[in-house]
Design brief:
heterotrimer; A mainly alpha (231); B mainly alpha (238); C alpha/beta (254); A: 231 residues; mainly alpha; 10 helices; 77% helix; 0% strand; B: flat
């Protein structure tokens, strides 16, 4: 064993944690399948509850879509830290000579990636069930989805780390997360609604709010997230 | 020791009496001295306490944010006491503002609640966020962990405040609210009463935070004494 | 474990010092005003009942746990003016805890490869494969850890701790879950580490083969040190008095 240990760069450490998260999840697909099914159920339930016409769908569809995603993600984000508790593997991550933020960020990007996978299934289903054609706006819609999802993953991952240290954590995460995501929800719904309207216009104010949200909270996660991993 | 206690009791009594007098004047100003608003009538007078509570709430949450960041940087538990004291006091004013809001909105706008009003709706979102802060703290037993975890949450909650406000404000501009009239500027006498009420409530906030902080300090001392007593009882202090 | 590693372990040794360290979990005091210095190359046996503070002490030395008050410091064998960063300290620490610290959903090899990448080791594939040989797990390299027996998991956990040739080893009840064969493998591994000049701090509430290697014994009770043999004292006497004589209680557990 001639190779000596050395500190790795932040990006490499993030990439390692990210790859590990994907590998663990893709072994069982437990989290992804449950989340996708849950998100689809929420979309179904909305259509039963509101029985929307095509015109209604274009007005309220954006809201249904984002609420479904928000609920689904508050469930999906839960295990990202609790899963590490079973064998105390989180301690092994903290023991490693890496910036603690790499652990948060690796999980954050993994959650972002998982949520994008969920959306890849949810969006076509939504389009068919609510008679909302999405193909014509696929480019800007993808941008809105990416920005919104990144915000959910950022705050969600940090809050999952917060909730994992408390009692009744399953209840606590949605309770803390949903109010904090209110501005992002308003902006995402606003932007998506603009795209679904007749003019198919992307409201730039909402995009600006989403960009602000993402940058602010990613920076906050970078500055303060590491504290959550101490004992 | 005894003289210090006497001094602090005297100081507290003096502070409490002066704040009570201030609040008394504020109530007199709002209910009697200020002119009655023409269209909204007597009920408009609740506006002074409604709006001032909203402003004082923001001040208290600012103090909480300072406590949160201070704790994370300095790691002295006193910063955490400042944070929880300020959040709890902020929540009192937040609740006052939320309850008086609809009472004022009915005569002013003709409806109890307008989701498009950025101030009122952000106040509601803040209330939910900071209730979350209090609940989170109750779910963590270890004071050190509690301080760290809730401080990080507190920072996130506070950063959310401007985003909540602006997103609701923009949202409003897209959905014209169903209200009839929004009140214009206040008459000079009304403005005077408003500022006086705000000053009185700010003093009240300061005295509440101070008392709550002291309570936390006393609890800490008691816990320390308990630990020390347990240790002695176990025969550890040989 | 090889010749090149043996020199580096001694050279990169760190002295650990605890000064007035106190750790509380609410009203529970896990460590009480504890002061302790451990020089590079010492093999310390931490003995005492469950709940005496051994685990907290080890987790604090691993920089996992932060003292409520007091200081935990690390100094180079050859003192340098620059303070060590947490990452520099962590590079030289290997830890085995109460839990395996492994991912059950990953194979033995994947676990080691992942941790090797976090320690910046070149060629993680090769290192993972090589580390499985002494642990006797090469044949099961591709199997998920979930399918492993308790003893195999513990051997893998020890292999994980040794991945980066650490010069400080913090072993919390490492013999737990090991059968007789595993226990003597552990003792051999620790003996090689001691020869290489690594610092070992090992906790145990019962007697075990590995404890006989100790050059210093520290007995703990209620979060304080009740007895310390010092580097040249009679470690054996303390171990025999304080560690429960339950040799073989883990035998046949798997």
């Amino acid at each position: 064993m001639n190779s000596r240990a050395k500190s790795v760069s932040l990006t490499r450490a993030i990439a390692s944690v990210f790859a590990k998260e994907l590998r663990v999840e893709f072994r069982s697909f437990e989290l992804l399948t449950s989340t996708i099914v849950f998100a689809l159920i929420v979309v179904f339930v909305f259509s039963f509850a509101f029985n929307p016409s095509a015109a209604d769908s274009r007005r309220f569809g954006a809201g249904f879509l984002w609420i479904a995603l928000l609920f689904a993600s508050s469930l999906m984000l839960q295990p990202s830290f609790t899963r590490e508790r079973a064998n105390d593997s989180l301690a092994a991550l903290v023991l490693a000579p890496i910036d603690p933020f790499a652990i948060i960020a690796g999980k954050l990007f993994a959650n972002f990636f998982f949520l994008i996978l969920v959306e890849l299934i949810l969006l076509p289903a939504f389009s068919v069930l609510y008679n909302v054609p999405l193909l014509g706006i696929i480019g800007p819609l993808a941008g809105v989805m990416l920005l919104g999802t990144f915000g959910i993953a950022t705050v969600g991952t940090v809050f999952a780390a917060i909730a994992s240290q408390a009692r009744m954590r399953e209840l606590l995460l949605p309770l803390l997360l949903l109010p904090a995501l209110v501005p992002l929800l308003i902006a995402s719904v606003g932007a998506t609604m603009g795209l679904l309207s007749d003019s198919r216009e992307l409201p730039s104010a909402w995009v600006a709010v989403m960009v602000c949200f993402d940058i602010m909270f990613f920076t906050a996660a970078w500055l303060f997230g590491g504290y959550l991993l101490e004992e | 020791m005894a003289s210090r206690i006497r001094e602090s009791i005297f100081g507290q009594a003096l502070a409490s009496v002066s704040v009570s007098v201030l609040i008394g004047f504020a109530i007199y100003g709002a209910l009697i001295w200020a002119p009655t608003e023409k269209t909204m009538g007597f009920l408009q007078r609740i506006f002074y306490f409604h709006a001032a509570s909203g402003e004082v709430m923001i001040l208290a949450f600012c103090a909480a944010f300072i406590g949160n960041v201070g704790y994370l940087i300095r790691r002295k538990i006193e910063w955490d006491w400042l944070a929880i004291s300020s959040v709890e006091v902020g929540l009192i004013f937040n609740t006052i503002s939320l309850v008086t809001g609809p009472i004022w909105a009915k005569p002013a706008w003709g409806i109890w609640w307008d989701w498009g009003d950025a101030r009122l709706t952000s106040t509601f979102v803040l209330w939910v966020l900071y209730i979350g802060y209090v609940i989170l703290r109750r779910m963590i037993e270890n004071p050190e962990r509690r301080a760290v975890v809730s401080s990080v949450f507190g920072v996130f909650a506070f950063l959310d405040v401007p985003l909540v406000y602006f997103s609701i404000w923009w949202w409003r501009t897209q959905h014209p609210p169903p209200l009839i009239t929004k009140p214009g500027g206040l008459a000079p006498d009304m403005l005077k009463v408003f500022f006086f009420t705000m000053a009185a409530l700010t003093a009240l906030m300061a005295i509440f935070i101070r008392q709550r902080y002291k309570l936390e300090a006393v609890r800490h001392t008691v816990a320390e004494m308990q630990i020390e007593a347990d240790y002695r009882n176990e025969g550890g202090a040989k | 474990m090889s010749a090149s590693a043996s020199t580096t372990a001694a050279e990169s040794g760190l002295a650990i010092s605890f000064t007035d360290v106190e750790k509380r979990y609410g009203s529970h005091v896990a460590l009480r005003r504890l002061s302790l210095k451990i020089a590079p190359g010492e093999f310390v046996a931490l003995v005492g009942a469950n709940g005496s503070g051994k685990t907290t002490l080890l987790r604090m030395a691993a920089l996992l746990s932060r003292p409520t008050s007091g200081k935990v410091e690390f100094q180079n064998a050859v003192p340098t003016s620059d303070a060590l960063t947490p990452a520099e300290i962590k590079l030289r620490i290997g830890m085995v805890g109460h839990f395996t610290m492994l991912y059950d959903e990953l194979s033995a090899e994947e676990n080691l490869r992942f941790f090797a990448s976090l320690y910046g080791l070149n060629n993680p594939h090769k290192i993972a494969a090589e580390s499985l040989i002494p642990a006797g797990l090469s044949a099961r390299a591709k199997d998920l850890v979930r399918t492993f027996s308790r003893g195999m998991r513990q051997r893998l956990a020890i292999a994980r701790a040794l991945l980066a040739n650490p010069s400080i080893l913090l072993f919390d009840e490492p013999a737990a879950g090991l059968d007789r064969e595993g226990a003597s493998w552990l003792a051999q591994t620790l003996s090689a580490l001691r020869k290489s000049g690594a610092t070992v701090i090992m906790s145990s509430h019962g007697q075990s083969e590995a404890l006989t290697l100790a050059t210093r014994a520290i007995a703990m009770r209620g979060g304080t040190l009740i007895e310390d043999s010092g580097p040249n004292g009679n470690a054996r006497a303390i171990i025999e008095r304080e560690a429960a004589p339950i040799v073989g209680i883990w035998d046949g557990a798997q």
